[in-house]
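in:
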């Protein structure tokens, strides 16, 4: 392999991913172990993810706020399951201003506790409900094994926190947000997902019920791409979040939390990328279109440059980049933009100008298959059509890949073999000891129990006990 080429996905998927993140200038390793620097290209992708989600949150009545990153240790200790779940991952501040602090402060691993403290102050009456707040921030969890975007000590995300008068309202909110994540994943990121409920052992620390969207990566491993939690009354009781109902009776609130993080960038890379680099879905790509002018001398440069300016004006509604770099060849530019995953490349040289055409190359169709010559006058329509076609094609390709690598074994031996080649969709009894044994035998975990369940029942894939639900098992990031 030459230094210019990425490792092959089929030969070394992990190294392909590691090199691609750095070489496509999405992120780089920070001086602190496990942390990352998100570079401008990666941050532009994250900004587009933020915009797509923020629009959906606000359309459903949520508002943004900001809460502090330092949380008193005593807050976490109020919810026993919560602190037990997070204690191995906590970063704790014990000295401030050169003095030992009276109480240690935790750098937020998530914000349920500080939210609970403030909601208890703000919520007094049923008229104050529901409270629908979202945060855009970073959190810190002391990870032992890290990987850029997928699992870092500090990462960026949104975390929603809501309070409701009834259990039914909280459950409806939990499911609404799960569906918003699924809609974003499938219709914006072109990543097919399975919506489902987490098992008891896999649910969020302190939650009544947890739900997730799970996506299959290009190496068939699973990635938890977003989560939505019904916290029941657990945090409301711990933090005394109560309200007077219409009968003037004091009641505990029902709360939820939900989040999606920069790990979704990792999902986009691993679901869509190929041996040439990134393939970004058009609805999220920082640059949807790149124009590469081709010329050999100053005269051709002037002619092509004038045509490019007209083309720029015509394509103004798209996120557009014109590559006017000097000193590098068109071939270098083609490879560079392929690495960065720009959906469409437009090539225009003197012959194209003379013919009134431009060559359009689709990133998801390498070589001649993805190229076509279109009239300059109709370029905007052609670009729009191709971006939409590519968006749909990426989703369909990923869905077909997941379908081909999701197995429904009926014996435990077949189940273990299936997990070597992808996901296993099986009847499962739901017992924790059975789940732990499967994990010990296979290194696979329950990803979720899909919301879409067949009628009837079956027998557990491992223990043979009666089972009323099917679950997805897979090895995961």
């Amino acid at each position: 392999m030459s230094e210019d080429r990425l490792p092959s996905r089929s030969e070394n998927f992990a190294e392909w991913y590691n090199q691609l993140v750095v070489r496509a200038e999405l992120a780089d390793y920070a001086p602190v172990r496990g942390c990352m620097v998100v570079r401008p290209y990666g941050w532009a992708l994250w900004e587009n993810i933020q915009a797509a989600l923020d629009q959906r949150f606000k359309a459903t009545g949520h508002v943004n706020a900001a809460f502090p990153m330092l949380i008193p240790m005593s807050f976490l200790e109020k919810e026993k399951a919560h602190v037990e779940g997070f204690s191995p991952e906590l970063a704790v501040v014990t000295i401030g201003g050169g003095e030992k602090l009276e109480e240690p402060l935790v750098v937020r691993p998530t914000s349920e506790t500080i939210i609970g403290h403030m909601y208890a102050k703000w919520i007094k009456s049923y008229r104050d409900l529901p409270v629908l707040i979202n945060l855009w921030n970073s959190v810190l969890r002391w990870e032992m094994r890290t990987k850029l975007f997928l699992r870092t000590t500090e990462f960026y995300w949104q975390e929603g926190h809501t309070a409701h008068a009834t259990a039914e309202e909280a459950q409806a909110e939990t499911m609404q947000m799960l569906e918003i994540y699924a809609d974003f994943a499938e219709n914006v990121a072109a990543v097919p997902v399975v919506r489902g409920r987490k098992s008891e052992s896999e649910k969020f620390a302190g939650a009544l019920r947890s739900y997730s969207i799970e996506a299959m990566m290009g190496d068939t491993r699973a990635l938890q791409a977003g989560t939505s939690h019904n916290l029941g009354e657990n945090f409301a009781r711990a933090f005394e979040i109560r309200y007077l109902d219409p009968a003037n009776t004091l009641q505990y609130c029902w709360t939820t939390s939900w989040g999606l993080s920069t790990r979704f960038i990792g999902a986009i890379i691993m679901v869509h990328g190929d041996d040439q680099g990134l393939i970004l879905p058009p609805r999220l790509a920082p640059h949807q279109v790149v124009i590469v002018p081709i010329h050999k001398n100053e005269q051709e440069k002037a002619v092509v440059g004038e045509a490019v300016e007209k083309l720029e004006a015509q394509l103004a509604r798209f996120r557009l980049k014109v590559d006017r770099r000097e000193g590098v060849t068109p071939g270098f530019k083609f490879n560079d933009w392929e690495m960065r995953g720009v959906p469409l490349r437009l090539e225009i040289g003197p012959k194209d100008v003379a013919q009134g055409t431009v060559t359009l190359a689709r990133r998801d169709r390498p070589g001649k298959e993805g190229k076509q010559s279109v009239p300059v006058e109709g370029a905007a329509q052609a670009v729009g059509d191709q971006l939409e076609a590519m968006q749909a094609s990426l989703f369909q390709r990923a869905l077909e890949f997941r379908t081909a690598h999701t197995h429904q074994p009926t014996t435990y031996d077949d189940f273990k073999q299936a997990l070597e080649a992808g996901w296993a969709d099986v009847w499962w009894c739901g017992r924790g000891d059975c789940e732990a044994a499967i994990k010990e035998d296979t290194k696979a975990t329950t990803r979720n129990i899909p919301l879409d369940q067949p009628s009837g029942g079956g027998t557990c894939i491992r223990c043979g006990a009666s089972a009323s639900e099917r679950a997805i098992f897979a090895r995961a990031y």
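note: The chain has three domains: 13-272, 289-386, 406-474.
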